[in-house]
Amino acid sequence: MIVVGGGIVGLATSLQLLRQRPGLKLLLLEKEDGPARHQTGNNSGVIHSGLYYKPGSLKATNCIRGYHLLIDFCQQHSIPYELCGKIVVATTPEEQPLLENLYQRGQQNGLTGLRKLSAGELKEYEPHVAGLEGMFVPQTGIVDYTLVAARYASLIVQQGGEIRYNERVTASSQRAATTVISSKGSYECRLVVSCAGLYSDKVAAMTVPSLNVRIIPFRGEYYKLKKEKESLVRNLIYPVPDPNFPFLGVHFTRMAKGGVEAGPNAVLAFRREGYKKSDIHLGELAESLAWPGFQKVASRYWRTGMGEMYRSFSKAAFTKALQKLIPAIQESDLTAGGAGVRAQACDRTGGLVDDFLILEETAAIHVCNAPSPAATSSLAIGETIAARAEAHLQ
User: Is 335 left (phi over 0), alpha (psi -120 to 50) or beta?
Assistant: First the structure.
């Protein structure tokens, strides 16, 4: 069996496959020189509770299951983590019914201990926050996912799997056997599982020429609070999400590695691995702009997009967005932080795929959409894929 992609989903999937089938001959191919170099290594390190996701969806079921598996894994392997909880804050009257809907959804997803908060009670958790009302979510936590991914990788090798770095998959075909061609060789296998993140559609299209989704990369840019201002944030502070763009909305996150992040905004990246404004790949940018689904998204939500772009270039505008949650924040309190790129699947009709998307063929399983909370959900996603793989290997 071959697994393509050494991010946290590909690593967790490989580990669960080996646990399910001891002795399985498994090879993981990763184009970078080590694990977790992209989405995994550039995320905010939040352990998600499963609060936001539609009950019964792959996101909801895998996040809730993955949450418990991740906590158990961290405890078993002495990986530091903290369940510090977070607050979700409604700052306008329009957001209050959305907050109530979120509370109901959390209960439907089995979260316990959710607490509704008045404006005064918000101050008990975060003294500097401003809001009309809020909700405390005790299950949310923080962890360094690069440590988790590195431990997955070491266990894969211990259990007989092989990981080859610096090998980019360039082609795949299905005939009598599935052939995977990389930059360094050619391999045959009974089943290929692709977890290629920002290039998941490219790898899937090698065997699914009529693939109906395209990965559109969105860069999330962060600021960090200066050390002397970190006391403005105790743990995690989130806004009520926009139902049309649940991945938008600046928030504050205390990091497992230290410090407090503020952000992100979300702008179209001009290359799939475009972590800086200056990162441009004309071919990849042209593919994004030419995709009919993206054109439909852009035509419907261009005002939202322009607002995000404006905040990308204006620190003052970014600060103003943060002040909705913490009015005391000043532009001078912020220093440049990191950035991550979200691999967002967009279908041809202009739908931004919200749920995890896993496609199956006779000899291939493709993970075509695995945005947040994929890191939290990784071991559960791995279980899901391992169960599906078993049917192919009978």
Answer: beta
Please say whether the beta carbons of 46 and 254 come within 8 A: no
The label of the residue with tokens 């158990």 reads: 72
Give residue-wise pLDDT tens across range 225-253.
999 999 999 999 999 998 777 667 899 99
Render pLDDT for 195-206 as a digit per residue (tens, 0 to 9).
999 999 999 999
CATH class of 1-82+142-212+355-394: alpha beta
Mean pLDDT of 101-127: 97
Question: Which of 167, 188, 217 is CA-nearest to residue 6?
Answer: 167
| CB neighbour list of residue 4: distance below 8 Å, 6 or more residues apart | 10, 28, 29, 169, 180, 192, 193, 194, 195, 196, 203
What are the DSSP calls for 119-132, one per residue? HHHHHHH-TT---S
> What are the domain boundaries of the chain?
1-82+142-212+355-394
Q: If you write DSSP's letter for every residue of 267-310 in order, what string do you get? A: EE-SSTT--STT---HHHHHHHHH-HHHHHHHHHSHHHHHHHHH
3-state helix, strand, coil in the chain (%, to 5): 35, 25, 35
Residue 51 near residue 240, CB atoms below 8 Å = no
Size of the chain, expressed as the number of residues it contains: 394
pLDDT more than 70, % of the chain: 99
Neighbour-count burial for 25-39, b at 16+ CB within 10 Å, e otherwise? ebbbbbbbeebbbbb
Question: Is this prediction's pTM over 0.85?
Answer: yes
| 278: number of Cβ within 10 Å | 7
Q: How far apart are CA 167 and CA 346, in angstroms?
A: 27
How many whole angstroms separate alpha carbon 99 and alpha carbon 117? 11
């045959």: which residue's tokens? 188
